[in-house]
Every structure is written in structure tokens, then in C-alpha cells.
Design brief:
With 125 residues, the protein is an all-alpha fold. It is 73% helix and 0% strand. The N and C termini lie far apart (74 Å). InterPro entries: TPR-like_helical_dom_sf, TPR_rpt.
Length: 125
């Protein structure tokens, strides 16, 4: 088998994106494993692998990968949101809420704000 090159890893990353879109998370993880072992600092590949783990219902692996991304990029709103979804799916709502709120604070997208479920302001009375 020929030695992998940086170009090979780019092709594998792009192929993994397509596999996720095609709902083949296991295939995506296989491709991303080689990319990440060659480039462990590649946050984009780790984020994509975390999404694949989530899609494949490998919640503990998804959580660990999203945490790794957030250690490197604590202001990554999508990673906070996705970690919140992962925790929510694992029935850990209080932990999820914290990440949903961080995501909404970092990027006030409607889906992030909705997930954060902020309490409406109380009327002065």
C-alpha cells in the first residue's frame, strides 16, 4: 500500500464529509482515523469525526472528540452546540444546557438560541 500524502489526507477528509452527508458515519470515522493519526492537531478533522460519532450514536466518543475541539477552540460555537446535543441525547440535560447557552452567547443563531432555552424576561410588577 502506498504511503499516505497530505493530498491523500485531504481526499480522505472530503470523502468523509460526503459519507456523513450520505449517512455512513462508520465509513467516515474509518477515513478520519487515518487523517487524525497523521495530523492529530487538525481540529477540522476532529470536529468532523465527532459529528460522525454522534451520527453513529457513539455518544461517549462524540463527547470526547467535541471536548478535544473545545480545549483547542473554546470559542467554537458549533462545537458547544453539538456537544450540547450529544449530552442531551445521553440524558444529561443540565450539562447540555450549559453548552447550548455558550453556543448562543458566541453565535446568536436562531437554532442555538432556541436550544439554549433562555427564560423570558419577567415583567416588572
Amino acid at each position: 500500500m502506498p504511503e499516505a500524502t497530505p493530498e491523500t489526507h485531504v481526499i480522505e477528509f472530503r470523502a468523509a464529509e460526503h459519507l456523513i452527508e450520505a449517512r455512513d458515519p462508520r465509513g467516515a470515522v474509518k477515513l478520519l482515523d487515518s487523517v487524525i493519526s497523521a495530523h492529530p492537531e487538525n481540529t477540522a478533522a476532529r470536529l468532523l469525526r465527532a459529528r460522525a460519532f454522534f451520527l453513529g450514536a457513539q455518544l461517549r466518543s462524540a463527547e470526547m472528540e467535541f471536548q478535544t475541539v473545545l480545549e483547542r477552540e473554546p470559542d467554537n460555537a458549533f462545537a458547544h452546540f453539538a456537544l450540547g446535543r450529544t449530552l442531551q441525547r445521553a440524558s444529561r440535560g443540565d450539562e447540555a444546557r450549559r453548552h447550548f447557552r455558550l453556543a448562543a452567547a458566541l453565535d446568536p443563531r436562531p437554532d442555538f438560541i432556541e436550544a439554549a432555552n433562555f427564560d423570558p424576561p419577567r415583567a416588572a410588577g
